[in-house]
Amino acid sequence: MKHAKATESDHRVNILFVSYFSTLKMGGQRSMVDLISNLDRSLFTPFCVVSDAGELTAKLTELDCKWFAFRRPSFKPKNALKLFRTVRHIQQLVAEHNIHIVHSDFERDAILFGYATRKMSTKAIWHCRVAGSNKHDNLAVRLSDDVVCISKGVVARIEAAKTSASTHVIYNGVNTNLFTPTTSQVDSPYLRLGGSNLADRVVLFVGQLKRGKGIFELLECAKRQPESLFVFIGSYVIQTDKNEFKQQTSGVDNVYVIPQQDNIVPWMQHARTLVLPSHEGVEGMGRVLFEAMACGIPVIGSDTSGVREALDERCGKLVPERDVDALHAAIHDIVNADSEVYESMSVAARNRATEVFASEVHATKVMALYNEMVRT
Predict the structure, then answer these.
(1) pLDDT at 142 over 50
(2) Can you spell out the DSSP letters for 287-346?
(3) What is the assigned CATH class of domain 13-173+358-375?
(4) What end-to-end distance do the CA atoms of the chain give, in Å?
């Protein structure tokens, strides 16, 4: 493959981000937006491909990032002609805008854009965000010049693809100027809930409401701890999980299920703890953990690939996956911690978020990779 280099007449490197989702409610898209926000525009010019116009494209416009909306067909024989036309469209777009690096965040896009540019003077990055394997992994790796892994757990997925890859562990970034601690209880969104008398004992879950996220184990903990308020924020993705979860929450007075929020910050700021009890392979790391940590909130996560890299014992607790007893004990300990212990964990959580997961740290590492790629 020929490799692109920025010309002397315009030394800026053109980066084409490719987003599978068109919403900002997904952690990967929030990380991508944070990265674009922190790019050095004197050195890099961002572009972005999305599936549909909407919430994400509005933000991209605000960031002065040119975007292109078109859907990519699935890899099925009946879509052969559509795939051919899509490849030609990608090639034209890349050539017209002199794209040096294509940066995809989903394995099918990594394959499609990698294939389209394989004989062009363009490099390809696959930004792999989930530790669970996919049948397309081998081909996605082969068509990528470099693979960015958001945790060491994700590296294990790439290594399992059994093909050589240039991997780089770069943790996702969080806007630590937006996700900040607060001492005011006046704006707590939990005061609006029926269980407002428990507003200072909130156990928060944020994410997709599906079995693999550990929502049923967390629900069992809620039944064991009626003195705390358990709030689930997210959307259902599997109908059978939705039906079962609704059935099991019926009559449980200390559980609230709330739709995804445009602004999740106050919900995190006013929680006592955030819990991510996901099963093995579901997370790449779990962005919500360090978003909450940036708000000074101690967190609890399952001891699974990626998640165990997000926190340490100073700022939270790791528990074995699917272990309700251990999860119950961890929640009880943090919710009932005395002020000195809790404050120590809160400070440690904020410090770890700013030192390890800040958007600026993430962007600096990604830009260094871009520069390395265009120099070779």
Answers:
(1) yes
(2) HHHHHHHHTT--EEEES-TTHHHH--TTTEEEE-TT-HHHHHHHHHHHHT--HHHHHHHH
(3) alpha beta
(4) 12
What order of strands is seen across the sheet that includes strand 273-276?
A: 255-258, 229-233, 202-206, 273-276, 299-302, 316-319
- Looking at the chain, the whole-number percentage of residues with pLDDT higher than 70 is 96
User: Do residues 267 and 234 lie in contact, with contact meaning Cβ atoms separated by under 8 Å?
Assistant: no
List every span in the chain annotated with CATH 3.40.50.2000: 13-173+358-375, 189-356
Count the neighbouring beta carbons within 10 Å of the beta carbon of residue 329.
14
> 298: which residues sit within 8 A by CB, 6+ positions away?
273, 315, 316, 317, 334, 337, 342, 345, 346, 349
- pLDDT tens for 310-356 read 999 999 999 999 999 999 999 999 999 999 999 999 999 999 999 99
CB 301 within 8 A of CB 276: yes
Of 221, 227, 256, residue with least CA distance to 331: 221
Return d(Cα 73, Cα 25) in angstroms, integer: 23
Is 310 in contact with 286 (CB distance < 8 Å)? yes
Provide, for the chain, the percentages of residues in helix, strand and coil under a 3-state DSSP scheme, each rounded to the nearest 5.
45, 15, 40
Say whether domain 189-356 belongs to CATH 3.40.50.2000: yes
How many helices (H) does the chain have, and how many strands (E)? 14, 13
pLDDT reading at 10 higher than 80 = no
